[in-house]
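Dear Dr. L.,

I hope this message finds you well. Following up on our conversation about the binding site, I have prepared a predicted three-dimensional model of the protein together with cytidine-5'-monophosphate. For your records, I am including the exact sequence and ligand specification that went into the calculation, followed by the structure tokens. Please feel free to forward this to your student if that is useful.
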Amino acid sequence: MLKGKRIILGITGGIAAYKIAFLIRLLKKQGAEVKCILTPASSDFISPLTVSTLSENPAYQQFWNKENGEWTNHVSLGLWADLMVIAPLTANSLAKIAHGYCDNLLLATYLSAKCPVIVAPAMDLDMYSHDTTKNNLSLIEKHGVEIIPAEKGFLASGLEGEGRMAEPETIFKRIEEYFEVGEQLKGKKIIITAGPTYESIDPVRFIGNYSSGKMGYQIAKKCLNRGAEVILVSGPTQQVLVHEKLTLINVRSAEEMLKVVQSHFELCDGGIFAAAVSDYRPAEVEGQKIKKSDDTLTLTLTKNPDILFWAGQQKSKKQWLVGFALETNDAIENATKKLKKKNLDAIVVNTLEDKGAGFGHDTNKITILDLNNNSTKFELTSKKEAAKNILDFITNNLV
Ligand code: C5P
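The resulting structure of the complex is given below.
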């Protein structure tokens, strides 16, 4: 399965580093090529000799070798790898990669690497639950790094709680899975809409909605992780996503979103439309700020174009299209109607009746309906997991 796959294993200075010997062994047994980079502090926890013996490569530690003056080329190490895994990732190295520090070989390689990066944090429970750590984790996630969350259990400090590095077997399974799905969408181009739209009333006001864009961005991330090229057409959101195969086009209104979709859809293999597009917009946009005068103010609204409907009409036989339906009542019935009316291949339903599902939350509870009347229902999960389920459905049924 991992034969010939090139993996850089970054090891930072936490007690969990001793377990990495087992991870190297698991990877080597499956035929992977492994090069380990150690931070200065990590060799207190695992010996470079153990690492180099098991990986059958030097244990990379310094920018240059003091004995022969030879330079270790971090750029070529970064380019060599198909995948970079940093385990354990300490609070210190996490902070450094989150903010672009570059004072050791591992950090320089991280900054030079073109491949995806997966990290397995490990630290004491108070450090793991600290706001700074949480912020740094969410920052690297926004930079496209995948995090294997720390687990609960006994910690080296004698305390018990969340902070233990995921077991080597868990990290190994994630690496295997990465290579299994990593190529699934290679060569495919996917257009995704995400976030709300803002419809101007006057120069300072708009009609919008509470969509955070989280679902659409998680879907975009999953498509990128599986090798697709992604065009993400995003309404105004706080979400950040950076990837070399991502074209991010920011829009505000439904009409702007439609224009962008119209100019890219034909060249795409498929589309996933997760944006919460405003159904109506003010018929007139006032040139000046509307002044407060009467007790009531009436706005006349006009219907916005249905972007997904447009795409459904244009869709060729080779293309596939997935829409979303956020329903407050009769969810399945309404979504089934939309699936047909908009000429979709599948529709992802979420209802506001489910606690934790829908706008703003980090979780979602979805059901996927398709044209064969199949209905696949999922439990409440993180939006990340929901995105994985949607992508599994698409790759198994539509691509
Ligand atoms: O009809 P409804 O708004 O419930 O449909 C939701 C689906 O249609 C979502 O996939 C949404 O992104 C898309 N949509 C759209 N343009 C609109 C309205 C909805 O693309 N104007």
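In brief: DSSP finds 13 helices and 22 strands in the chain.

With kind regards,
A. P.
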